[in-house]
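BUG-478 | component: ligand-complex export | severity: low

The export step for iron/sulfur cluster jobs runs without errors, but we want the raw record kept on the ticket for reference. Input record follows.
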Amino acid sequence: MTENLTENHHIPESPSLYAKHKKVYPQAITGAFRTLKWKVTAAIMAFYFITPWIRWDRGEGEPDQAILASMSLRRLYFFNIEIWPQEIYYLTGILVLAAVGLFLATAMAGRVWCGFTCWQTVWTDLFVWVERKIEGDRNKRIRFDQGSWNLDKIWRKSLKQFIWIVFSLLTGAGWIFFFNDAPSTAMNMLTGQGTYEEYGFTFLFSATTYVLAGFAREQVCIYMCPWPRFQGAMFDEHSLIVTYEAWRGEPRGKSKAQNIGDCVDCNLCVNVCPTGVDIREGDQFQCIGCALCVDACNSIMTKLGRPLNLITYDSVSNQMARERGDEPKKRLIRKRTIAYSILLSAVVVLMAYGLLNRSELEINVQRDRSPLFVQLSDGDIRNGYTFKILNMINVPQTYTLAISGLEGAKLSVIGLGKDPVDTVTLDVEGDTVATYRVFVRAPIETMRSQFEDMEFILTNSETGEVVRYDSRFAGPVR
Ligand code: SF4
Ligand code: SF4
C-alpha cells in the first residue's frame, strides 16, 4: 500500500532541519570596543585566578581564604562576612540582583552581558587569540585549514592544542579553589595527594572549557544558550543595540557613484564577527552585541574620511525618527529602566539592612512528637525538646535559657542537673551548632487546653543579645 502511494503520488520532500556547521574564522580588529573587551577580560581573569589566593585572618582554626564557598564546613566566606546554610536567602538575594542587573543592562544596551562579560564569550575570545597567534589571522587560518598536513601544520596545531589544554586545566583547577583552601589544595593536587573529587571536578570543568571555548564557540551562543530566546522580552524600541545605519549605508557599493551610500561592501564587519553575523541584514539573535563590527566599520570609515558609526549602538525608535526626518534622542531613563533600577535598589537596600542587622545567634527548637507529653508521679506534665543553638561568633559563648508564657513552668537540661530550675546556663563553642535535650515541666492545673503557647528566651550572657522562639506545651485532652 505504501509502495503504491509513493509510486503514484509525488510527495514533496520536506526541507532539511539540519544546517551544516560553517566554521567561523573571526578576523583580528583594533578599536575602542576591542580595547574595552580586553580590559573586561583582564578584570575577569584577575578575579577568577587571583581571588582564591587572597588571605583573610579570621582567627585560630578558621579558614583564612578571603572568598571561599566551603562545602565541608557548609559556609560561605566573603572577607568579614560568614554566611551559614540557614542564611541561604543572601545567596537568593545575590541571584535576584544578578538577574535584575542583567535585565537592566539588556533594557539599556542590549546584549552587553553576552558581548563583554559572559564567560563563554571571554574564554572563547582567549582561545581564538591563542589560535590566531599560532596559526595566523583569518585568511591565513582558512588557507591553513584547507591546506594539506605537513610538519608546520602538525606542530602549530599541536602547540595550539597544548596551550588550550593547559589553559583549560588552569581554568578547571581555578574553579576548585573557590571551594577549597587554594594553597593546600594546589599543593595536594600537584603532589598526587588530592582527593578523587578534586581531580574529578577539575577534569570535568577543564574538559567543559576545552570543548566549549575551543570547539563549540559561537554554537553555544546560537544553539545552547537560552538567553537569546527570551532576551527580546527585555528590549523595547528605545534599547540601544548594535545596529547598521541602513539609512546612510544603503545602497551599498564599491563604486564612487553619487547615489551610493556609505557602506563600501568591504565585508570587514562580517569577517570580524565571532558568530559570523552580517549585521547589515538587521538585528539577529545570533548577534551577541560584542560591537567588534563597530570597530571594524569605524576603521574603514576613518580610512575613507567618512563620518564614523555607520554601525553603532542605536535604538529602533531613533532609526524610525531618522526615517521621519526627526531628531533622534537617547532615552536611557524610561518606565522599564526605572522599574528595574527601583527593584535593584530595593534588593541592595534589603540585603545591606539584613547584613548590618544580622544576628550572630540563632535557635531552632523541635518538640518531641512521641510521646507528646509525660505525666510525672507528682502529677506535673513534662514535654521534651531538641534545642539547637547556632553560635556564629568564632569564640565560645555562654547563654541563659528561660521560658515564659507558661505559669509555674521549670526547665531541666540533660547533662546539666536533674532539678528543675527557672533558668539554665548553656555553653556553646565558637562557630558551632550545639544541641541540647531540654525538658519543660508544668503543673497540670496550668493547662487550660491540650496545647499551651510558650516561649523560649535565650540571652547571650556577655552581649545581652536576646533571641526568642515561640513553641507549644502539650498535655492531656481537656
Ligand atoms: S554582528 Fe557585530 S555585535 Fe553582533 S556579534 Fe557580530 S560583531 Fe558582534
Ligand atoms: S565594515 Fe562598514 S563599510 Fe564595510 S561592509 Fe561593513 S558596514 Fe559596509
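Assignee comment: Attached the raw record above. DSSP finds 16 helices and 14 strands in the chain.
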